[in-house]
From TrEMBL:
<protein>
    <submittedName>
        <fullName>Metal-sulfur cluster assembly factor</fullName>
    </submittedName>
</protein>
<dbReference type="InterPro" id="IPR034904">
    <property type="entry name" value="FSCA_dom_sf"/>
</dbReference>
<dbReference type="Pfam" id="PF01883">
    <property type="entry name" value="FeS_assembly_P"/>
</dbReference>
<dbReference type="InterPro" id="IPR002744">
    <property type="entry name" value="MIP18-like"/>
</dbReference>
<dbReference type="InterPro" id="IPR052339">
    <property type="entry name" value="Fe-S_Maturation_MIP18"/>
</dbReference>
<feature type="domain" description="MIP18 family-like">
    <location>
        <begin position="13"/>
        <end position="82"/>
    </location>
</feature>
């Protein structure tokens, strides 16, 4: 996620909510996996910019449903759109230290 942009309080709440969405294959949340590229809150709507570990990920529909559920549970957010982004392509270097340790990846 682009750290240069200061997140609003609502966007911080959305990011915290997204930490509850676990990738079923890896057992780590989407934020720590580095799959969330950005969140944008405008009034009662939120757009989540994200990617997947691979194109054609069979879990994308399940992840979409979970994302919409947790985002719209954030106070003041009524609508959630998910924008899939493929550039830059996801790689293991985008994971947080927490995710790497949890997955046993040593740098």
């Amino acid at each position: 996620m682009d750290e240069a942009k200061q997140l609003s309080p609502a966007e911080v709440s959305v990011m915290q909510a997204l930490e509850m969405v676990i990738d079923p294959e890896l057992g780590i949340d989407l934020v720590n996996l580095g799959l969330i590229y950005g969140v944008h809150v405008d009034g009662d709507s939120c757009e989540v910019d994200m990617t997947l570990t691979t194109m054609g990920c069979p879990l994308s529909n399940a992840l979409d449903a979970a994302i919409i559920q947790v985002v719209t549970a954030v106070e003041g957010i009524e609508h959630c759109d998910i924008k899939l982004i493929w550039e830059p392509a996801w790689n293991m270097g985008m994971m947080t230290r927490y995710a790497k340790v949890a997955l046993g990846i040593h740098e």
